[in-house]
Amino acid sequence: MGDIGEGFSKDKSSAPTPEDAPELPSSFSTSRQQRSFVREKEVPKRTATPLSSQERMHFSKLQGSFGARMLSKMGWEAGTGLGSERTGIVTPIESKLRPKNMGIAYKGFGEKTDQSKAEARRRGEKVSDDEDEKKPPRGKGKGKDVKREREDAWKKPKKSKLKVEHKTYEEILAEAGTEPAPSGVGIIIDATGATMREVSSLADVSGWIPSMDPTRIPEVRHNIRMISDACKTDLDGLAREAKVLEDRKKWIDREDPKVRRKVEDEAELIRRLQAVHLVVDEINLKAREVAQSDYEPTLDIFDEHIDKLLNYFGKEYERYRLDEIVVAAITPIFRRMMSAWRPSEDPSAYTGKLRRWKTALKMNDAPPETGLQVDVYGGHTVTKTPMTPYESLLWNIWLPRVRSFINNEWTPDEPQQAVKLFEAWSDVLPTFIQDNVLDQLILPKISATVSAWNPKRDKFSLHAVVFPWLPHVGLRMEEFVDAGRRKVKSLLRSWMTSEGVPKDLRPWREVFKSADWESMLLKYVIPKLGATLRDDFRVNPRNQDMAPLQQILEWANIIRPSIFGQLLETEFFPKWLDVLHIWLIQPSVNFEEVAQWYAFWKGSIPEDVRRIPAVEAGFTKGLQLINEALELGPDAPRKLPKPNHNRPPSPSEGDRKPKPQRTLPSRMQEITFKSIVEDFVASHNLLLLPAGKVHEKSRMPLFRITKTVEGKGGLLVYLLDDAVWASEGDEYRAITLEDMVLRATKAR
């Protein structure tokens, strides 16, 4: 303290220099007004400055110029600065060009011009010799030295003087984000006198005047600097630590509510899980009680517990897959129920309970994909998408019971039992189990029944076997009904007109495509109906047999009206008009009887058939013939023309020239012998296939009668003169149809 006091007492009159002014404590200015230790000096006016040779050459060039004369009139002299006090520049501003592609101060390049340096010297400023640009020495290696300097530029970083910025304690704390402590330097002891005393501020120290003399008390100054540096380091560290602590405090303040909420959620989850555990224990207890009892098994005892799980613990039910616990609890009871179940008596049993539990019993929306995987124990099929516990329950317990019922008890000719079973369980079965029941159990059995169906032997109808399953087959429709279509075609091949309309035909009309339906009727029905009208039907007013015509009229609602009208127009009305003409040309004809006969025939034809244009035209011809006979009177036997069987023009055709009546196709006019052979062959499950060859002598095409569509084996025949010709040795002889089928069946 003595040294410090001595330092303060020496040279009290010396004023501090401006360089030391920043080192004074800030408290020195708190008690009294700050003194000014620097006197203001008057700036003398600049006088004429000696000019260099280059400047004298410059001013000699300007003498006599307009600018120099104007400046001299305003008091300017060469060698003096501009302005009223001659403090401006002496020579004009000079520019200095920086080398190409060089940055500012690159490689020590001086930016100052010679003019700016000279002006600085005139103002009394010190200009360092290092600022003068050193020109490289001229010589051989000038280019190499410059190149070497450029290559080594990255190795020689330019030294720059660090600028020290002083910060107060309050500024450091402010940057750290904390409030500074109350200002004050603490206790101050005045040791300048004989005795030490405590003062409130440095201004109260007697006889003390701050000094900036750097030569005084160097040891104390050195120690103070070391202490200051150490304090600054500690203060920076504390400030950084305070900032970290402040950030952590803010983070803790943000995270604390989250943690508290998480703790509350965990506590709530624990409470809910404990409640779920109690319900699960009750379910297991009920399951054990029912499994050990001898009473009739029932699932009603689980209703309350399952409803509680779904209504109060829905999230936990999904998250922890509680459906496994439910299925495990009901599995023993469900197995006992299935063993006592009779699907034929109660096909919808237990579906109400499963439908109520449908939310609790999980099912996959998409069917599981199966793939083959081989392990060390052998090959077996595994599923890529595992079944849910409920699906596994149905697959392993319900499906075997249904499979046994369908395979052993159910017959397709009584489809309602299986249909009711499938419809009752469809909404509680996953898709892949429904497909398995259809594809593996029901449809194969129906296909076998359809293939073996015989209308003459079997009492049940074909559509009764197939049609109840149409709403359930989905995309299998074409494949499913295709066998039925073939059976209907086979039925019509062997059908005769006297048998009437087959009872299985009308329902199948909606299953066939319109073109296929008409084509089938044109091929197998129309020719036979035409043959019946042509060969079996006679118009006899005395003893009329209506049975053949009634057999034809039964097809009126099945065959397209235009085709049915052409059939009557071709086969019925020519016979009917010819008989009417013969009656009208009789000498003693009774027109009243003719009118009654005409009304009888018109009433015998159903009204919807009479509205067919071809049928209306036929009756119109008969009425015109009667009217013409009435007009001719006694001359009718000689002058009444025979009926014209061409179609007359309809009233809507006006005056257009009537066209000749359109004839029926050949397949509608008569039944060919080939079609008879085809029907006979088909009725014996054989095929008549073209062989692609001709008989050498008769040049008739050969056909092969065989069992397979490959056209191998069988019997080669050709058709000629309504007979079947088959080979016997080297020659072909006519054989009967029965012999043909017998030989084709035995042939390989």
UniProtKB/TrEMBL annotation:
<feature type="region of interest" description="Disordered">
    <location>
        <begin position="634"/>
        <end position="664"/>
    </location>
</feature>
<dbReference type="InterPro" id="IPR000467">
    <property type="entry name" value="G_patch_dom"/>
</dbReference>
<feature type="compositionally biased region" description="Basic and acidic residues">
    <location>
        <begin position="109"/>
        <end position="127"/>
    </location>
</feature>
<dbReference type="GO" id="GO:0071008">
    <property type="term" value="C:U2-type post-mRNA release spliceosomal complex"/>
</dbReference>
<feature type="region of interest" description="Disordered">
    <location>
        <begin position="1"/>
        <end position="60"/>
    </location>
</feature>
<dbReference type="InterPro" id="IPR045211">
    <property type="entry name" value="TFP11/STIP/Ntr1"/>
</dbReference>
<dbReference type="InterPro" id="IPR022783">
    <property type="entry name" value="GCFC_dom"/>
</dbReference>
<dbReference type="GO" id="GO:0000390">
    <property type="term" value="P:spliceosomal complex disassembly"/>
</dbReference>
<dbReference type="GO" id="GO:0003676">
    <property type="term" value="F:nucleic acid binding"/>
</dbReference>
<protein>
    <submittedName>
        <fullName>TFP11-domain-containing protein</fullName>
    </submittedName>
</protein>
<feature type="region of interest" description="Disordered">
    <location>
        <begin position="106"/>
        <end position="159"/>
    </location>
</feature>
<dbReference type="Pfam" id="PF07842">
    <property type="entry name" value="GCFC"/>
</dbReference>
<dbReference type="Pfam" id="PF01585">
    <property type="entry name" value="G-patch"/>
</dbReference>
<feature type="compositionally biased region" description="Basic and acidic residues">
    <location>
        <begin position="142"/>
        <end position="155"/>
    </location>
</feature>
<feature type="domain" description="G-patch">
    <location>
        <begin position="63"/>
        <end position="114"/>
    </location>
</feature>
<feature type="compositionally biased region" description="Low complexity">
    <location>
        <begin position="26"/>
        <end position="36"/>
    </location>
</feature>
<comment type="similarity">
    <text>Belongs to the TFP11/STIP family.</text>
</comment>
